Amino acid sequence: MSLGPLMIDLRGTSIDDDELRWLASPAICGVILFSRNFENGEQLKRLVSSIHDVRDPPLLVAVDQEGGRVQRFVDPFTRLPPLRALGHLYDVDVSRALTSARAFGWLMAAELLAFGVDLSFAPVVDLDRGLAEVIGDRAFHSSATAVCQLASAFAAGAHDAGMAITAKHFPTHAGAICDSHTEPAVDPRKFIDLWDDLQPYRHLINGRLDAVMVAHVSFPDVDPIPASFSPWWLTEQLRGQLDFGGAIISDDISMIAAETVGSYAERVQAALAAGCDMVLLCNAPDEIPAVLDALNGYSNPVSQLHLMRLHGRGVKDWDTLRASSEWIEAQERVRSLSARPEIKLEG
Asked: What's the confidence (pLDDT) of residue 256?
């Protein structure tokens, strides 16, 4: 059975009977886990294994493990600082910041892979323009150049560990003051004013970018429809102008900013029609049966190929990982980021 276009969440720390039936549907591609799904390492390993065992090829298991205020799994995982810590270091020592960004990406990925988790939806490549509180210190920096360099180093580390990366939130959430989780989010800028915001995507696509997560932000100057449902943004710009060949993933369609498109089933269908390969549906279990019915018979071989490439690989078990010199060095580098470096002024 191939992977379908829908990723869903679970209620708790194991799979309920109705959830198991949903996961067996050909419309499902995987599961995104949250803090409520995590108790400890042994429980997580059992849960991930049970998800992978549902289907062949196995379903994807994903999480938001960015660091800072968006880290779903804690002890025994390393507590990761926000990505902004790398930006602070960049302002003091660029070379050291890039080395630390690579260690950050590797450590985040290697620890998740040791528990069977395929994918973390990271890194955030939005610029920090001081407008979007929902982004804030989740962003590397306010400079497009700094974000490009730090994100590339982060990606290289994650790839070394065996994990695909997901740059988010395309095209940007940086210019929308409102949080798309809780209200409609609008960026009033003209397309020409988004050049710097799109630069990290250009840069990463020229290297290796496995996936892009699309924001439910609308840009009325180019298209009043939120980008996640916009063929102009996804097909014409991301696929066409930027020549992106990886997986396109919608942000969670249960967000308030996605409501303008219609019912949950209509949102999924609109996102797929616009060019998404995967659609996230979280925190709305009552809606899942109707969405699965709406996706009955849906098939997109190209999307299936994009999604299959997101499986983790080269996994080390937890004990072997923690005993490695690479893990010890990476953890030391990442932990040192928690102490914000002082900027020395001349004169």
From this structure: 85
